[in-house]
Amino acid sequence: MLKDELPKIITKTLPGPKASIVIERRKKYIPNAIGCIYPVVIDRAEGAIVLDVDGNKFLDFIGGVGVLNIGYSHNEIIDVVKAQSEKYFHAMFNTMTHEGYVDLAEKLGKIAPVKGDEKKVFFANSGAEADENAVKVAKSYTKRPNIIVFSGAFHGRTHYTMAMTSKKAYAEGMGPLADGVFRARYPYYYRTPDGINREDYVDYYIKSIYEVFEECAAPNTIAAVVVEPLQGEGGFIPAPIEWVKALRMICDKYGILLIADEVQSGFCRTGRMFCTEYWKEAGVCPDILTTAKSIAAGIPLSAIISSKDIMDSVAPGVIGGTFCGNPLACQAALKVIEIMERDDFAKRSREIGEIVMNKYNELTEKYEVVGDVRGLGAMIGIEFVKNKKTKEPDPMLTKKIILECANNGLLVEGAGTYNNVIRFLAPLVITDEQLMKGLEILEGAIKACS
């Protein structure tokens, strides 16, 4: 079966002849801003393997940028979506109730590590929509106009979330952006300025929040602090637990809601169903949690989860939308959660992560260009630098490695504030043999390019 095979390139060049024709058509009809450097036109995919239109097989370490934790074309997901499609495709939840929406809300309310005894949940279609709606809920509850986000953050490309997102390459030419969005420093320990002792790192990063209070907006005007438990586009940087605890204390002191953006880190990616389960184990929970990506195996869906009191503060008509909580997506999500709990995907994520981290640590010892590796579970970043002493980012080398991997049948993707990180987001159904082959290709690419 395709899902058990290894990557294999059979065409003399990439893209192959059939793929080249489609890619040229893409250039003609699709805006250039929607870029894609990969020489792949997908024909079929299973597990972690993509078959292109020319018969080449690629091993996918990108997983739809975190969408395919359960893999491509899972038979059980296909069955429930097919069954739902034979009943009805759509039922707008603002006009009529469909049970799948209620079932999924009930399930997520039970398993999400959010503050409060009674939880309520509503759905949107994308991660950006979820984050923007979470802020709307926070503003409704607190009656405050402003929020704090962090350096390195990515929260989306809508007008409001472009302001929340740190890298302004995602907002070029789009100004003026939404106001009331203020930025503090995220704890990027690898790039903490020289001269600061490790024991003082938390104080250094927490100080920037107080600087926002002093220089930008008083704490009694802040509705929410929005943070990724493990930054994605920012470079796959986990939020240190000691910093999260300090952040929670600040929020509690000033009546600010803490929003955890788990769009990418949810659904067993980090070794727990949600990354914020690590927070809960340390005695900390967010007030609002957003999630999307792998929630429905590739069907557009996102969720906003919070306590009853917070959710019911929102005025009628402020939240909701035509396609939010689509019946096909809800059934897919229910089955995703069932499979992940039944087959212990969280454990598999930790197993994969241990293998990858061990290999990446070996690469750190062997190659001067490997500056840092970090992550949780199977959400891991490897950062490339010109040398370990200066830590100067090397985005050009990173790009070369990505293309070299693709030419050898491995799909990896970049990330990071400086475009010098390669992220690991392989589907959690990847086999050990495929995983080892992929790591072999990656090392070969590092060796060839550095």
Distance between the termini: 36 Å
* CATH-defined architecture of the largest domain: 3-Layer(aba) Sandwich
Structural class: alpha/beta
Total number of helical segments? 14
Arithmetic mean of pLDDT: 97
Largest sheet: 7 strands, mixed
The percent range for strand residues is 15-25%
Low-pLDDT stretches are none
Helix content: 25-40%
* CATH classification, class level of the largest domain: Alpha Beta
CATH superfamily of the largest domain: Type I PLP-dependent aspartate aminotransferase-like (Major domain)
Notes on the protein architecture:
The chain is α/β, with parallel strands linked by helices. It has helices spanning 17-29, 63-66, 75-85, 99-111, 127-142, 159-164, 201-215, 241-254, 276-281, 308-311, 327-342, 345-366, 395-407, 432-449; strands at 42-46, 49-52, 57-60, 119-124, 146-150, 181-184, 222-227, 230-231, 237-238, 257-262, 288-291, 302-307, 370-376, 379-384, 410-411, 413-415, 421-424. The protein has a 7-stranded mixed β-sheet, sandwiched between helices. A 4-stranded mixed β-sheet has the order 1-2-3-15. Helix 4 runs parallel beside helix 11, helix 7 packs parallel to helix 8 and helix 13 crosses helix 14 (432-449). The chain is globular and about 60 Å long. The mean pLDDT is 97.
